[in-house]
Amino acid sequence: PPRGLKEEMTKAIVKKAPKRIAGMKVREVRAYDGVKFILGPSCIIGGEAWLLLRPSGTEPLVRIYAEANSPVKVREMLKAGKQMIGRRQA
């Protein structure tokens, strides 16, 4: 999408940022080159997770990336990301 649309999408995602994703507390929201949610406790090794929603600069789509300590959590986070994008488009 054009740069203005990418920025608009990013702002809309941040504005409606959830307090929890996949049962984990959203500790931080970073809005640089997309929206990155830092999740879970910071003091536990391997306990932190993240979800990134990144509007493409060349295609009309949003890429969703996630990292967590289990495949089940990653799937839950990706599902939550898809729901956020769907909510944005509604």
Automatic annotation (TrEMBL):
This is Phosphoglucosamine mutase. SUPFAM superfamilies: Phosphoglucomutase, C-terminal domain (SSF55957). It comes from the Bacteria. InterPro entries: A-D-PHexomutase_C, A-D-PHexomutase_C_sf. GO terms for molecular function: intramolecular phosphotransferase activity. Residues 25-77 form the Alpha-D-phosphohexomutase C-terminal domain. Pfam families: PGM_PMM_IV.
